Amino acid sequence: MCFGVILCFFAVVLCIFPFFYVLLESFCNCFWGAEGLPLSTTSNEACKLYDAILTQYVKWRNDDTLGGLEGCMSAIQAADPNFVMGNVISTGLELMTTTTSTRLNQRLASAVRRTVELANTQDISPREKLHVRAIECFSHGNFPKASEAWEEILLDHPTDLLALKFAHDSYFYTGAQAEMRDSVVRVLPHWKPHIPLHSYLNGLHAFGLLETRFYDQAEKVAMEGLAMTPDDAWAVHAVAHVCEMRAEVDKGLKFMETREKDWQVSDALASHNYWHWALYYVEQVFRRCKASGSMLDTVDACSLLYRLEMEGVCVKDRWQELLQVTQPHTDDHVTLFNDLHFLMGSLGANESATSQRLLEGLQELTKEPGENQQHQLAATLGIPMCQAMIEYNQGNYNQTVNLLYPIRYKMVNIGGSDAQRDVFNQLLIHAAMKSESKRHQKLGRCLLVERDAMKPNSPLTRRLMERNLALHG
């Protein structure tokens, strides 16, 4: 929704007739209000910048002609520093990156407080107040409460794309797969072709479907979205996941290759899509990871090295390179998912002091977790998983199995996707195969049978079965 021509005309009218000024806010709002989404600001420039930020967020792509997301977020502050939704979208996006936390970053904590203060001192809509409540909850680590607020918005305003996308990402961080799917399903009837960015809902919908094992439907929905918007990198990403979960290696490689020119322009998601194509594009992942500093790129690089190492590939030098990126985040503790990947980095680089510091920091936070959901989960999930990785690194395979096996069905709660969390399933299988315990070895065989049933014809599963046969006959 860009209304530049009309709003510029109206600005001329304002110069001629100053008494029209009082109508400007309602004029801006009438356009957003067409979808029941008024914005409480008197700045038409702020409205346009809000739209530009939201569009780049949904597309996973910086628009360099506008200065990218960072440039637009700076500009929206200059256009109207008291614009509540301008502060919501800028602060919310920084929180969503999980690159930093309000616990350690006082500037970000201050930005959240300022947003709340602005909301409390202005006559804004109930929808806008819910947005503020949501990012405040998210900033405290209370992801479920944040999602509840966004869902409350969507109940009355199903075309509020910011609420939908924030909820989608929040569900992803908590492994709330069904919620991620159903959140999109509920609003679909309200989205019509004339609504900007409507085709991008296909990618969101498809991802929720595949994470709840509706692979055929997920592929169909994603391809429908790509027929409308070929460069929708999230829809491409959904198809990549479907091929991964079905072990359709050749199909996945061909799909990613033939569409690379479309999805690689999505600079915020390109590295992750290369990760799905990782065995052929290892260099792409690392080059982009170091350049972007993106948390998604960082955890992908950690996961890739960890998987290659379990496959017997020597990646020692790569760990040292990656440690430069992960080590500064040792004390963040924003999500358990991130922590586990940072631990991969310190273990791989043999930085035992960093590994211990990460574990002890997490243990300390469990003593008084407050409303932070991730810290609440740490005692029963995050810490055992960290300890299991440390034990595996030290060759204590029995203890690794004893720690991981009882919680394997709870691992979904660390967030991420099935494809990303599979690294921990692989870790359990490797530990069971290497364990001296006959019972664990038998468990390893059972886990491989189970894996083969879930992903028939997977080359990885076949390699694991062959390795198990070589070890134990």
UniProtKB/TrEMBL annotation:
UniProt-listed Gene3D superfamilies: Tetratricopeptide repeat domain (1.25.40.10)
Database matches in InterPro entries: TPR-like_helical_dom_sf, TTC38
Keyword set, alphabetical order: Membrane, Repeat, TPR repeat, Transmembrane, Transmembrane helix
Membrane-spanning intervals of the chain: 5-24
Family: Belongs to the TTC38 family.
Name by which UniProt lists this protein: Tetratricopeptide repeat protein 38
Source species: Gouania willdenowi (Blunt-snouted clingfish)
